């Protein structure tokens, strides 16, 4: 099966200098660099997802520095950048068509945020019939609050990875993935 790498929203907004810094983003980006390099070396197509918010939004504003893909994981050559306006990278984009055009039959997902855009793209991809592998240490998220309960980022991230592993995807560390 031909594999493709989907790099979700590794944008400047999520860095410590951005408006929505994520817990563990530095480690996730370091690992993403390794995975992207591996994919390029193996000839696996790399698809970059970039979120843009509606005009006037406080984060990911079109044309802003925050909406730019982080330089360390920027596309090279003819690697496509799929711009999305929704949480799900398949919604109202040509991601599926680009995967099909590259004859991708299984995908590896890395990026941000574990509990939002990673969740949405993994579930949508599986619903479309793609086998999916999520590299947990090349993903990051942030602390959440619901109903007066504070959920540390590590717990939110672990919950998502456990849910994927339970019924949606294979979940591996970058080291496990690269060692095969």
UniProtKB/TrEMBL annotation:
It comes from the Bacteria. GO terms for molecular function: hydrolase activity. Residues 5-157 form the Isochorismatase-like domain. Signal peptide: none annotated. The keyword Secreted does not apply. Keywords: Hydrolase. This is Cysteine hydrolase. PANTHER family: ISOCHORISMATASE HYDROLASE, PEROXYUREIDOACRYLATE/UREIDOACRYLATE AMIDOHYDROLASE-RELATED.
């Amino acid at each position: 099966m031909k594999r493709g790498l989907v790099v979700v929203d590794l944008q400047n907004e999520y860095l410590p200098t951005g408006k929505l810094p994520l817990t563990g983003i530095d480690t996730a980006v370091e690992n993403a660099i390794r995975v992207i390099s591996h994919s390029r070396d193996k000839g696996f197509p790399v698809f970059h997802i970039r979120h843009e918010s509606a005009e006037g939004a406080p984060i990911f504003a079109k044309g802003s520095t925050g909406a730019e893909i982080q330089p360390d994981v920027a596309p090279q050559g003819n690697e496509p950048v799929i711009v999305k306006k929704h949480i799900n990278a398949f919604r109202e984009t040509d991601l599926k068509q680009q995967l099909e055009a590259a004859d991708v039959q299984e995908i590896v997902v890395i990026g941000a945020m574990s509990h939002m855009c990673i969740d949405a793209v993994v579930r949508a991809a599986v619903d479309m019939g793609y086998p999916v592998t999520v590299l947990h240490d090349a993903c990051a998220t942030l602390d959440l609050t619901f109903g007066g309960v504070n959920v540390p980022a590590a717990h939110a991230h672990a919950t998502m990875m456990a849910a994927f592993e339970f019924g949606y995807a294979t979940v591996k560390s970058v080291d496990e993935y690269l060692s095969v």
